[in-house]
Fold this sequence. Notes:
Layout: H1 2-7, H2 21-45, H3 53-63, H4 72-93, H5 97-113, H6 124-131, H7 139-157
Helix pairs in contact: 2-3, 2-7, 3-7, 4-5, 4-6, 4-7, 5-6
Keywords: Membrane, Transmembrane, Transmembrane helix
Pfam families: TM_HPP
Protein name: CBS-domain-containing membrane protein
Amino acid sequence: MPRKYIAKFKTAERSPSAPHVSHAIYSLLGGLLAISLITLLSHSTATPLLIAPFGATCVLAFGVPDSPLAQPRNIIGGHLIAAVIGLCCFYLMGNTWYSLALGVSISIAVMQMTRTIHPPAGANPLVIILTGAKWNFIFSPILVGSVTLVAIALIFNNLSSKRRYPRYWL
C-alpha cells in the first residue's frame, strides 16, 4: 500500500512549456486593464467592486482564456454561488473555523455540480466570513465586479486575432 501511494508522486509528464512572450505581455495588459478599470469605477461610483479573488480571476481570464475555468459562466456563476454559500455559512454559524471550512468545501461541491467551477471563487467564503459581509455583497462587489471582469475579458481577448473568448457560454 505505501509503495503504491508513493509511486503516485512520480511524474510521467513534463511541465507545459512557457507561453510565447507575446501571450504573456497580452495577459499582463489584460490584467492591468481589468483591475485598473474596476478600481477606477469603484472610486468614481464610491461602490466597492474589487475583492482579492478577482486578481486570481484575471490570471485565468487573461492568462489562460481557453481554460474551462476561465469561461463567463464559471467566472460569474462560480463567484455568485460561492458568495451565497459563504453568506449562508456566516449567518448560520458566524465566524468560526467550521463555517470557513464548510463555506469553501460546500462551494467546491456546488460549483462542480453546476459546472461553474472557478478556483478564485473558492476564496469568496473566506473573504465574506472573515470580514462579516452583508447580503448586499452578492450584488456589489460579486455580481457587478464579476460581470465587469467578463465584459473586459470579452472585449480585450477578442482584440487579438490569436485569441477567441469565450470558448463556450453554457
